[in-house]
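Notes from hallway chat w/ T.B., transcribed later so I don't forget. T.B. wanted the structure written out for a chain they're using in a teaching module, and asked if we could keep both sequence and C-alpha cells in one place. Agreed to drop them here.
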Amino acid sequence: MSSSGRDNVQELLKIIQNAATEALNEYDKAGAEVPSLDSTSPHPLDSSLENLTLKKAVRTLEGACEQLCSTLAPPAHTLFNRGQDYYWACLRVATEAGIPDILSSHPEGLHISEISKVAGIDSGKLGGVLTLLATRSCFREVDTDVFANNRLSVLLKSDNNFRDFMSMLTLEGPQSALYLYDNLIDPQKGTSYDPADSPFMYFLEKDTGYKGSFFEWQKIRPDRMKVFGRGMKAMGGVLGSNSSLNNFPWQDYTTICDVGSGFGSFSIPLAKSFSNVKLVLHDLPAIIEQAKQAWNRECPEIVEQGRVEFVPMNFLEVQPAAGQDVYYLRNIVHNWPDEQTKIILRNVVGAMGKHSRLVIHEYVLQHADRRSNEANRGVGTELAPPPMLPNYGMGNIRMYNQDLVMLLMYNARERTLQQFIDIGKEVGLELIKVYDLAEMSLLEFRLAE
C-alpha cells in the first residue's frame, strides 16, 4: 500500500533532521564550529572532502530538501524557477570581471558604484547581477548596494583554481547546451557518437567553421587548455577524488599502473601514503614530461628511490605496462564513447595477469526508480531511504549534470552500473565490487574466468 502525500512529507522531514544531525556531529568531531556563510576564512572541514560521513549526510540533505519543496509547491512554481535559473550567467560575470578580487581589500563591503568603476560595467546592471548572486548566498549585501565577499565568493578569486573551473562551467558548457536540441535532431549528427559530432563541436562549426573533436580544438586554443588544466585540479578537490586512498586496500598491492595519469594528482598522494607501492605512470609524452617535473618538485625522494616510472603512451593505441597488480583509471572512459572505451579497456585487459585488478574511478549513474536499483545492492551500491528517490535525486545531481557535460563536449557519457558490467563482459572483465565514495565510485574488476 502506497503512503499518502502527508506521510511522505513527514518521513522526508525525519530524514532531513537525521542527516542534519549527522553533519553537525562531524563538525563536533572535528572540534570546529559550523561555519558562517558570511565568513571569508577557510574552515577546517572545507578541505576534508574525503569525509564520507559528511558527504553522505549532505547528499541526503540536498536530495530530501529538494524533494520536499517539489512535493509541497505547485508544479508550475517549481518548473518556472528551474527554467529561469540564470545563476550560471551571473557567476560568469562575477568571475570574468574579477569582482571577488575587487572586494578582497574591502572586507567591510564596497558600494556598487565603486565596484562598477573598477570592473568597467554599468553599476545599474552589475548591481542586479550581484543582488541575484547574494540572494543565492554567493557574496553578501551588507547594506543597500554594498557588497562584500563571503564563504562562497572567495573561491572565485584569481589565485584559486576554482575560478578556472567556473570559467569552464559557464562558457563552453552553456555554448554547447544552447545547441543540444538542434544537435539531437540533426539527421547525421543526432545518431552519431563520433567525438567530432558533439553539441559543442556543432556550435563551433556553426560559429567559426571549425571541424574536429574537443581535444583537437584545445590544441589550437592553448589559453582554454590551461583553463581546463587548472579547472580539473579544482574539480578533483570538489569531487573528493582522493577519497579512494582511504577506501581501497592499497596496502595489499605492490605495483600500481596509473593509466591516463596526468601529472600525478592521484599517484603522488598514493605514493606518499603507501611506502609499499611502486608506480608506473602512463600518459601522452607532453603530459609525462610535465609529470616528471611535478614529481621532482613535490616528492624527489620517491623518484630517487625508483618507486615511480614515467612511460609515455597513448591508451587508445598500445597496452600499458604488463603484469601490474592494479590498473587504475580515473575519469578516463567517461570521456569516450563505447567503441573507444572498449579499445582502452581491451588494451588494459591484454596487459593484466590473473592476479591483476582493474579499478575504474568514475561516476556510476543510478536510475530514479527503486526496482532497477534494488538488483544492484549486493555489489556495494547505496540507495536513499524511501520516500526519497533511490538515487538521492538532487543529492547526486552533479553526476547527472556531468553526464550531460560528457554528451555536450565529447559525445560520450557517464555510465550506469549495468553499462559498466556489460562493457566489462565484452572485453573479458568481471565486476567484483563497487565502493560508494558518496559521489564517485570505485569499480573493481578482474579477468573473467
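Follow-up for T.B.: Residues 5-29 form the longest helix (25 residues). Might be a good example for the class.
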